[in-house]
Amino acid sequence: MASRVLLDTRPLTQHPAFARLWVGSTLGGLGGQLTITAVMLHMYHLTGSTFAVAMIAVAGLLPMIVAGLYGGMLADFFDRRLVALIAATVTWLSTALLAVLAWTGHVGAWWLYGLSIVNSAANSIVSATKMAITPRLVGAALIPAAAALNGITVGVMVMVGPALGGVLVALFGYPVTYTLDLVLMLSLFLGLWTLPRLRPEGETARPGLASLVDGTRFLMRAPNIRTQFLLDIVAMTFGNPLALFPAIGAVLLGGGEVTTGLLVAAGAVGAFGSSLFSGRVSAYRRHGLGIARAVQAFGVVTAVFGLVLAAGAVGWLGSDAAGPGSPSIPLIAVAMICLALAGAADNVSSIYRQTMLQSAVPDAVRGRLQGVFIVVVTGGPRLGALYAGTLATVSADWFGGVPSTWLPPLLGGVLVVLVATLVLRASPSFLAYDAESPAP
């Protein structure tokens, strides 16, 4: 019974190449989270503006979209191992420049924006290519288990990375934090370097307009894939208040950088836990229905998180008892529980979305569809940063000076539930999707 409930580790024990790539991706992703957290805190330190923090994500949106789509075309024509190695090298070099600038004291807001754009573009290519590789490494039967293991990766790197990043910045400063990312990223190169050559199977198309049109035509014939993309965009645009966390930690809940790291990490705790006990999740065949219920649950707990912040804004639960800027332990704890539940729901949805995409899409177009998937997965939160940062900024005067960072998650969670319900009513084939007969 326990083996059916707990995480299926066969992709690691039966496929050494996948195991090496998984370990490298986990450690490299952990380092990347250190830098993401440090850049957010660095920008807030330089500008004192939540909107400036939100614009880090927004500025990289268009380059990330272009890189994800073009990277998918590269992965569908060239050796996927080589494509991932080159893109990872670009990421490492841009982070190295950021570290040098930090050590020499020459970091400004525009440097943070520019290097974040380069990192997001290169990482979108790495991620799309690695995901296109996975089915070839583990086989069709173990794709759900591999997706759950990827949830462990996300859980570890986001659970440990932001909290550790906040502590490292507070104790040692930004240069040390960026440098540690460089060291951890070396493990990703080892995982990629030891892979075999992995050229796409079937008829391939040279990167360019014809390849993009071919991938688009396939997507137009894939209603289930389109529906899962749409649901994820809705959830990540309106239910991802990450850009507000520095201000929430500094002003609303107290605790500053440490609270920011804890809030970010809470979602990863939920993702980690849901992956650790994902045996029955991986065995469930109705992936469309699973995605639908997970997205709706995500919206509900996001709205509750907004209510918790609203309680802090008006001084409930003793949020102002210790004085301005002091951490409100009860509110922080309740907020973390909400975010952990949201992370668990999002991870369950991710397991089913990855499995559907990797099982129902032929290898010859898998890179391009994974590129679109990465654009959706990473682009949604960037739109969410714009939504949350803008709404929090313009609503600052609506409530008589009371901090309004609670409004974006409260309103956004309600919108996620309503829009998801409407989309699902229009997509009966998605709700009937059966993993035993995968159809795009």
UniProtKB/TrEMBL annotation:
<dbReference type="GO" id="GO:0022857">
    <property type="term" value="F:transmembrane transporter activity"/>
</dbReference>
<feature type="transmembrane region" description="Helical">
    <location>
        <begin position="229"/>
        <end position="252"/>
    </location>
</feature>
<keyword id="KW-1133">Transmembrane helix</keyword>
<keyword id="KW-0812">Transmembrane</keyword>
<feature type="transmembrane region" description="Helical">
    <location>
        <begin position="258"/>
        <end position="277"/>
    </location>
</feature>
<feature type="transmembrane region" description="Helical">
    <location>
        <begin position="369"/>
        <end position="394"/>
    </location>
</feature>
<keyword id="KW-0813">Transport</keyword>
<feature type="transmembrane region" description="Helical">
    <location>
        <begin position="141"/>
        <end position="172"/>
    </location>
</feature>
<protein>
    <submittedName>
        <fullName>MFS transporter</fullName>
    </submittedName>
</protein>
<feature type="transmembrane region" description="Helical">
    <location>
        <begin position="406"/>
        <end position="424"/>
    </location>
</feature>
<feature type="transmembrane region" description="Helical">
    <location>
        <begin position="110"/>
        <end position="129"/>
    </location>
</feature>
<keyword id="KW-1003">Cell membrane</keyword>
<dbReference type="InterPro" id="IPR036259">
    <property type="entry name" value="MFS_trans_sf"/>
</dbReference>
<dbReference type="Pfam" id="PF05977">
    <property type="entry name" value="MFS_3"/>
</dbReference>
<feature type="transmembrane region" description="Helical">
    <location>
        <begin position="297"/>
        <end position="317"/>
    </location>
</feature>
<feature type="transmembrane region" description="Helical">
    <location>
        <begin position="21"/>
        <end position="44"/>
    </location>
</feature>
<feature type="transmembrane region" description="Helical">
    <location>
        <begin position="329"/>
        <end position="348"/>
    </location>
</feature>
<feature type="domain" description="Major facilitator superfamily (MFS) profile">
    <location>
        <begin position="180"/>
        <end position="440"/>
    </location>
</feature>
<feature type="transmembrane region" description="Helical">
    <location>
        <begin position="178"/>
        <end position="196"/>
    </location>
</feature>
<dbReference type="InterPro" id="IPR010290">
    <property type="entry name" value="TM_effector"/>
</dbReference>
<dbReference type="InterPro" id="IPR020846">
    <property type="entry name" value="MFS_dom"/>
</dbReference>
<feature type="transmembrane region" description="Helical">
    <location>
        <begin position="50"/>
        <end position="70"/>
    </location>
</feature>
<keyword id="KW-0472">Membrane</keyword>
<feature type="transmembrane region" description="Helical">
    <location>
        <begin position="82"/>
        <end position="104"/>
    </location>
</feature>
<dbReference type="GO" id="GO:0005886">
    <property type="term" value="C:plasma membrane"/>
</dbReference>
